[in-house]
Write a structure and sequence with these properties.
- The protein is an all-alpha fold and 96 residues long.
- It folds into two domains: 35 residues; 49 residues, no CATH class.
- 80% of the residues lie in helices and 0% in strands.
- The chain has three helices and no strands.
- The longest helix is centred in the C-terminal third of the chain and has 32 residues.
- It is elongated and about 65 Å long.
- The relative contact order is 0.14.
- InterPro entries: DUF4229.
- This is DUF4229 domain-containing protein.
- Keywords: Membrane, Transmembrane, Transmembrane helix.
- It holds the Pfam family DUF4229.
């Protein structure tokens, strides 16, 4: 269990790191004029959007193990909350 202790934090940090790396690559490519810079003040938004579009599929492929570990960490908590919710609904139904 200790390897999954900080799975959510690890996945989130890696996801943010992948986004930052994608943004850095996009930024370098834009200022070397390999990709267009955008129009006027839209430059930063264009670069951010492009970095999101690039990092999302990369994280889906590259971070599969971390995502699975995070799901294993979160699943028991979700099951407990569902059970508590079902019990409270059952109590409400019993009062009517």
């Amino acid at each position: 269990m200790s390897s999954h202790k900080f799975a959510t934090l690890r996945y989130t940090a890696l996801r943010i790191g992948l986004f930052v790396a994608s943004f850095a690559v996009v930024w370098v490519l834009a200022y070397v004029h390999v990709i267009p810079l955008g129009l006027g003040a839209s430059n930063i938004f264009w670069l951010l959007l492009l970095a999101v579009v690039i990092s999302a599929p990369l994280s889906f492929v590259l971070l599969r193990k971390q995502r699975d570990a995070m799901a294993e960490q979160i699943a028991p908590r979700v099951d407990r909350r569902r059970a508590r919710f079902a019990a409270s609904v059952g109590q409400e139904d019993g009062l009517k």
